[in-house]
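Input structure tokens:
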């Protein structure tokens, strides 16, 4: 049986982005380099609410959606923010600094 190779997500994408989706949500866009990279990632089973909850160290119920958008070779997910945008203790008012943990996510290809 062939051994599965894993690559960090950073090697499969051209664009990782996070942003507010209102004051209480942050949404993430993962845009893949190619249709092939997207299809492999999509079939890998890695991009689940469970994976994102574990990666961001939040309860599963905080991940409110995971969406695969075939027309753009993109996976999008949305989470409830721990602290609402611009509230006391908020470290990323626009939600734009939340994507970094995705960089090293191992994806089987």
């Amino acid at each position: 049986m062939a051994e599965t190779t894993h690559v960090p997500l950073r090697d499969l994408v051209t664009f990782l982005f996070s942003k507010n989706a209102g004051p209480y949500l942050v949404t993430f866009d993962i845009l893949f380099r190619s249709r092939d990279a997207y299809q492999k990632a999509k079939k890998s089973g890695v991009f689940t609410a469970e994976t994102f909850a574990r990666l961001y160290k939040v309860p599963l119920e905080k991940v409110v959606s995971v969406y695969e958008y075939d027309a753009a070779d993109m996976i999008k997910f949305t989470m409830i923010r721990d602290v609402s945008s611009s509230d006391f203790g908020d470290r990323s008012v626009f939600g734009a600094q939340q994507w970094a943990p995705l960089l090293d996510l191992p994806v089987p290809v």
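The chain has one domain: 6-85. The chain has a mean pLDDT of 91.
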